[in-house]
Design brief:
Layout: E1 10-13, E2 25-26, E3 36-38, E4 54-55, H1 56-59, E5 65-68, E6 73-76, E7 85-87, E8 92-94, E9 98-101, H2 109-115, H3 119-128, H4 139-143, E10 146-149, H5 152-196, H6 201-206, E11 212-215, H7 216-219, E12 220-224, E13 232-233, E14 237-240, E15 256-258, H8 263-266, E16 277-281, E17 285-290, E18 298-299, E19 303-308, H9 314-322, H10 324-332, H11 344-347, E20 351-354, H12 357-399, H13 414-427
Parallel strand pairs: 3-8, 14-18
Antiparallel strand pairs: 1-10, 2-5, 3-4, 5-8, 6-7, 6-9, 11-20, 12-19, 13-15, 14-15, 16-17, 16-19
Helix pairs in contact: 5-12
Length: 438
């Protein structure tokens, strides 16, 4: 850290002010059934949220644990880049991969908790952790970690301010986290209205027309690949797999190819063209997208290309196939206990609701407008979530530069605080040898 600190602060190593790594062990037979048992999996990364609280009776753990008290800071030393740190609101035990750290006469517990989330601390522990697959922060490295020590009253003011502003940041994040589900429901309601006739009800008043329910196999030619998956090559004809077909679009990652020379021999059932519709038949089941490119490509297994006749427009068909009505049929007719899938013969029997071509065209136009609006909202949401995600480290950095709250000249400087506490320890009566505390 290169920031200039207030004159009353100290920059020092963490181990100089707290007993990092000093723990009290608890064996399973000494843990009562109602004791809180905290595991790393119970802590959400970055947010310090406790996902679940389980007792020893519920966990039935058989390993040695670390004891902690109410108010202790609990730091996850395994894979420290996950930034798992909480402050205990009651006593309990935790995995030995979590280090309990106690506040003391020099360090406020909430201040200490916030410091462990500071970007400088996170950078340090990420750099010094040992182990490739499961890196850990060693005890010596933890004791040597950077720390800043303001006057004790200022620590409390900083912690109080951070508690307040970060609570608002968390509330904002929670509200933003609920929006993707709302956008998903908004899109599904659009599809439901589109395929039930509600979306174009006003349009149909001026141009009455009849809707029909038809078998998918009666309006579409099925193009798929059967047999052994073609040998993949470094370049050649692009291969579209089920992994590439997402909900409503095709991603070209991962990018795979087959030999150019074998394309026509492999695609014996026909050749996909622009405007056709792709649907996945397994892992995942029911993802739908329109082919909106001109270049030649091959199909892998678990994916079918639908070429529709003149009764149905491909873009409308894609809307109908993504609707809850069609997806429910797909799910009901699928087979497989572990991975759901559907055979082409069953897929052909599923029903699709289609209006005349003019209304299909109007439905597509309206859905595209509404989906574009949803896409803009989604983009704004992504920007907002990124900005909110940057607030916590920015506020922590500001706090530990001494810029979040005002300094009070009446506060005892950190250096004087440490001298006074050291003098008190020296003056304290020494325990006589040969006697133990009871």
């Amino acid at each position: 850290m290169s920031d200039v600190l207030p004159s009353t602060w100290l920059r020092l190593e963490l181990g100089k002010v707290v007993a990092y790594g000093s723990t009290e062990k608890a064996e399973p037979e000494s843990i009562s059934p109602d004791t809180w048992v905290l595991e790393l999996e119970d802590i959400e990364k970055d947010t310090s949220r406790i996902i679940q609280k389980l007792t020893f009776a519920e966990r039935q753990s058989k390993s040695t644990k670390n004891r902690f008290e109410n108010g202790d800071v609990l730091y996850g030393k395994l894979r420290p880049y996950l930034n798992k740190v909480v402050q205990a609101d009651r006593a309990g035990v935790c995995t030995t991969e979590i280090i309990p750290i106690k506040a003391n006469a020099a360090v406020n517990g909430r201040f200490l908790f916030h410091w462990f989330r500071h970007p400088a601390f996170l950078t340090y522990v990420t750099e010094v952790s040992h182990g490739v697959n499961m890196p850990r922060l060693g005890t010596e490295a933890g004791q040597a970690a950077p720390f800043v020590l303001p006057p004790l009253p200022e620590q409390k003011r900083i912690a109080d301010k951070l508690d307040s502003v970060l609570a608002r940041v968390d509330a904002c994040r929670n509200r933003l986290d609920r929006l993707p589900a709302l956008l998903k429901r908004f899109r599904q309601s659009i599809l439901a209205a589109a395929t039930s006739g509600q979306l174009t009800e006003d349009w149909r008043d001026s141009a009455p027309c009849q809707w029909n329910s038809v078998r998918l196999g009666s309006v579409a030619k099925f193009i798929d690949y059967r047999g052994k998956t073609p040998t993949k090559t470094a370049s050649g004809t692009p291969l579209i797999t089920a992994k590439n077909v997402r909900r409503g679009f095709v991603s070209f990652e991962p990018r795979e190819f087959i030999a150019e020379s074998g394309y026509e021999a492999w695609m014996t059932r026909g050749f996909p063209t622009k405007g056709d519709v792709l649907i996945t038949t397994e892992a995942p089941l029911g993802n739908v997208a329109v082919i909106d490119w001109d270049f030649k490509f091959a199909l892998a297994q678990r994916i079918i290309c639908l070429q529709f006749n003149d009764q149905i427009i491909g873009t409308y068909a894609a809307i109908a196939l993504q609707s809850d009505l069609f997806q429910a049929q797909l799910s009901n007719q699928s087979t497989g206990s572990t991975v759901a899938g559907i055979k082409a013969s069953r897929l052909k029997e599923l029903q699709v609701e289609i209006p005349p071509i003019p209304e299909q065209t109007e439905i597509v136009r309206r859905v595209e407008i509404l989906f574009a609006f949803a896409d803009r909202l989604e983009a704004r949401l992504a920007t907002a979530r990124l900005q909110v995600g940057q607030l916590t480290p920015a506020l922590l950095a500001k706090a530990f530069r001494g810029e979040l709250v005002a300094q009070d000249p009446a506060d005892e400087p950190a250096a004087e605080l440490l001298k006074r506490l050291a003098a008190q320890r020296e003056a304290a009566p020494k325990a006589k040898r040969g006697h133990s505390k009871t």
